[in-house]
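Field reference: "sequence" (input) and "structure" (output). Example, SET domain-containing protein:
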Amino acid sequence: MGKDAIPKNWPPTVPYLSQPSFAPHITKTQLQALRVCSPDLTASIPANFPRGPCPLVRIILIGDPSHPARGQAGLFAARHLEPGTLIVPYYGIIHSSLPPHSLDHEKSDYDLWLNREVNIAVDAEKAGNEARFVNDYRGVRERPNAEFKLCWDARSGQQCTVAVAVFVLPSGKNAPTKAGAGGIAKGAEILVSYGKGFWSKRKEENEASVER
């Protein structure tokens, strides 16, 4: 992969993925589960959605002293994004969430569920794409303007057909970015809610660290 196939400001120590990477311990049963389209998957990645660096986003270092992620990177809109728009798939290492394999991922802040029934998750800590830079909205704006959604990947040749992707929140769920408009404005940071589970786990880890 050439340098032109890696986004600007991508960290040199993290491999860039244009498709998911599967841990060697993933079983045939788990792979088959990811190829079953559930009626609950109302969103999809179209067959013609391109791989590689996403033209809709930019990775930018955050310098705002009031931002909770100051000194780290965030994901920003390269153009105005309409409500409901698919922004970018979430790529990482697809792995089992059962011990002993889960031990390599239990402290990761980049680990998302793919299928709880067969214990499969995707972790973008050690390899991923632009979606790994999406920050939580808390301390930045009143509410999120995007969301993580399980979806169906319709692209041919894609071994994993169930995926996670980042979407702009639909109309009515996001405060307008300008008079009469929704979506995400050009230059605005793309922000999701990590959920109560993430912050509860973070609180437990901090308390455990203090006790030591």
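The helical segments are 28-34, 196-211.
The longest strand covers residues 146-153.
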